Amino acid sequence: MHFVAVIGRLLRALKSLASAILEGARGSCRNVSSVVARVLGSLVSVTPDVFPPYRTIKGRLASKEADCEGRFFIYVDDEKVEVDWPAFDALDTGENLRVRSTRSRRAINIDRLLP
Questions:
Q1: Does 69 or 44 have the greater pLDDT score?
Q2: In 3D, which of 105, 109, 106, 95 has the Cα closest to residue 59?
Q3: How far apart are CA 115 and CA 112, in angstroms?
Q4: Mean pLDDT, the chain, integer
């Protein structure tokens, strides 16, 4: 699910770049260069999250929390990992888990480990 969101952000950034280039053809070059710089900065900030290596965290689910922005987090082996609502709702404190996450600590998959 996270991969789909990243692809969506990349497509929006490319669309913005294309429209800026079209606008720049009849506008000033300074505006185009600032938009191109902004879009490339956005691409650079998103891209590393998509590619391996991913982090693997094993341990007990210590706690769960939600912030005021509607994001959900779990703490596994003293590491804070962002999860989606269904995962947040399905997991119980104390479960043994193996979490694979991106470099920015967003969960890719969560496995329950048997004792």
A1: 69
A2: 95
A3: 10
A4: 81
